[in-house]
## 1
Amino acid sequence: MTTKHTGTSLEDLISALRTLQANGEKKENKVAVPNSYDGSPAKASTFLTEVDLYLMANDTLYPNDKDKILFTLSYMKDRHAAKWMKAKTNEYKKNLKEKEAEASDTKPEDQIHLMTWEEFLDNFKKAFQLLDIGTDARLKLRDLKQNKKHMDEYITNFRLLAIDSEYDD
């Protein structure tokens, strides 16, 4: 009798705990938010890496393409990036409105297409990343000089450029 009573109580506790977890607030993980992006091609790759790290750490806060796109756009506040952000935001809002107004029996081929996260990243890269990162890095490697820099700084710069240069060993 006690085993049955204890078993039921344990099941009730487990159920209550699951309910609390399901109803709990989604918490932001302590990962640095991306720096604001200004449209500089030299900073594009770093910005995307910062966004990616933040989104991976907070995947429950940004579970779908729309959330990821809007989060990323919100950090494009300066110069050329701000203009691109405004255009993409307007395009996305227009498509969302049209999608909401779309009849439920619309054929798949006639449905309004909402941009996916992958398509957004593609558009971003076409708009902001250097066309040929490898060539750019190789040119910078060719011109790299220590000058008055400390040796450690020179070596760090060399290694970073070597990664992008696409040179083999």
## 2
Amino acid sequence: MPPSDATGAASIGKSVQIRGEVKGSEDLLVDGLVEGTITLTESRLTIGPNARVKANVSARDVVILGALVGDITATGRVELRSGANILGDVKAARLSIEENAIFSGKVDLVQNGAAPAAATTQPGALQGAS
């Protein structure tokens, strides 16, 4: 059953397999197999509980309930819901991880697509203080 926040989105059903590039400008629910890349720069990507995705994904918001192997880039929020299993790096403005979600990778929280300058100077300042 699709999550309520994905209502009205285009969908890739659980019996569908796609290998290659998926691009679009509307919200998308993936509940099948996708291998390659998914690019929805101004839309929400929802990876459903039955999904098996091996792809680098880029979207405004990404909600994951299933399995993803690949890197995630979001200009907005990434939500790892209960039951999600992610192996890859996350770069986003906001990240939420629910209990029982599995995540293995690095996190880079950025604002407006750029890393804050303080993050690059802070470690040197701390070393000089000790």
## 3
Amino acid sequence: MTRPFPRALAAILALTVPTVAGLTGCAPTAPDADGRPGPVDAAAAVADVIESSGLLQQLLLEVGGIPDAADQITALTHRNDELVASATSDAQPPEDAPTAAAASATIEPAFARTPGNAAADAPASAFGAYLGLLQLPAVAREGLEGAANGEPEADASTTETAEGGELAMQLHSRYADGRLNAESSSRMTAASGDASLLVSWDTKIELLACPASDGTLSGSLTFDVQTSVTSGGVVRGASLDVLVSLAAQVDDDAHVTSITLGMEGALRESTTGSEGSTSAYLDGGGTFTSRSFAPGEDFRYTGDGGIRRASQHATSAQKELFIAALTDAAVGLGAIVLDDVERFFRGGSCIDVLVTPGPDAYQDAGQSLEQEITGRSTVDGEEVEGRASAELQDGGASVSPSAELAPTPARVRYTGPSESDGTGSVHYRLVSRRGIGLLDLDYALADAWVLDQSWDGVRYTATKCGGLDGEWTVTRKGTPSGNGGSLSGTITFDLDPVGLIGYLTESSTLSFGSDVMHGTWTGMASLERIDDATVELELDYESGTVEYDGISASAGEVLDPPIMVLHRGQGGACAAGRSGA
């Protein structure tokens, strides 16, 4: 048989419940660094999710016939929210019954936006809003922040006893190829006499965090919560499944300009006992689309949402409550997550900025470099078309044009200071529908690239002026470990300016008193840039010949030295001149 919905739910509508028709978006926000408002007021979005989640939980408990368990479930979920907060941020665990403004300290505004008064004053009876819906953006944010900081994968788990019940939580996120996949799960159990309580929920996040070549973003947020109370041989349970699909468009200024949100929700109840089973259900969904974004305005949604299936005794008030709360939760979650995604792709994680020529070409005081700025996707390696600029950040002497975005390949001139010890720092920026690329380069008049490293009892030294490419001479001297002889050798190679690779030859002697062995060796040498002041040298020997007392023989296996690190030399390292080795 089909179980009627409790009529008591009509009283819930006396609360301030946003209706579908009233979904007009959030208040305008403080502008970001470009002087343009961001897409959402994050604090208001958090408040929407908190309020909506509270209503959904009340509905879930009423439908499940377990309203008496509300206090215990709320206490357990409040503790779970504290654990989520501690696992995903440095924020302190929230106080009991915080306001929405306090709750937004963990789900912080992406551009440090100022919360609106309405959001700041809105009461919230439990941080994270009962059902833990805010786990979705919290886990997504943790994954995005880790990816931006070079930590693409993260895990966290904990188990503890709280409020008379057991709590177990797991979080996992992985970022690869521009996509974030994250999930979390929580299980809470409690028992008293012959009664037992189980609450569990699972979240799953799939996001394209770096816009595609056409500026599109997509993703989905999945949430599933289940409650069950067993008492006196009767099992009462309820479940809520929520799916939010996201699609957004990014413009040439790297801003989200339109959003389409799809939502699906299903609420189920069942009661099983000696007298049989009953059930009730609500299914609903809809699609909401923002109109195009205009400067000075915020997103405002239009769309349609409604009940698709419902138990025959479900009231219109219950149906309205379900869709209104579900819609506000979907819009709020989508806003929070897309806000963080926008911050991610505007923060330099999706585009590499390339500057040619770079600091290596700066060889003389007062020299001017005619530079070209281009971009490359960190996801697929494709060239990114957009607009780029350069701006002097520190030191001297000038960049022209300065801080003016121009179509790629953008051309600028960097002129260094006239003093030999002068330095300069330039900030390069590329803006496109695939995000923003950021690069800071330091310019200093280095005397040379210097090698001074020891390995296996032998010291390798070199001083190279005039850039990384061209002719190199490396000397090595010492007493090889376990050998006892005195080694002296010269390694020469000529590096190609494009790949910084070339053939090497070595001539060396190994002396044991008056006995001297002569050796010649061939192979490959290559350099790899680590940063503007550091490169790595790799020597790969291929063959050799040893001569002693007039007899020549092919050398056996040649042991390559480890990769060696070179640094920019300062102060007179090339006193003999700037060209050659």
## 4
Amino acid sequence: LWRGKKDLGSEALQAAAALKLAKRDSKALQEVLASKVGRLVKLDLLALLHALQRHDEVDLAFQVSPCFLVFERARKEVWYKPSVPLYRDMLKSLARNGRVEGVYSLFETIKQEKAEPHIAMFTEVIDIFVGSGRFRDALKVFEMMKDSEAPPNVRTYRTII
């Protein structure tokens, strides 16, 4: 699954494999985070996060997913700065996997970090919810959007309709 990815270094590949094996056991997951993920440099950590998002490692059956744990680990690093593209990718990954509460929680995190959500973030999440038949969730995100500093645009209205 992870082989052949040029953007992942060997340490990140090992961390990805260990996360995949440990994702069903919270104790093992914490050990992997401490021993493997904790050693990654910035580029490898971000590459690992993007790889987990690409492979939809946002597991519905478990409260805490490897992808979210790696994201939280990245947020604690000294070099971390709120990033619209990173947030957008996390929101899309959560929405694709039906993690509605995770979407709302991440929007709150974005507000707490004073990184106001971008129109594209809201619109892409709305688009994913509409595409998967989750119309109520799409409308909730639309209402959040209207209350934010990123008012709906033409694309957003087309998506809702």
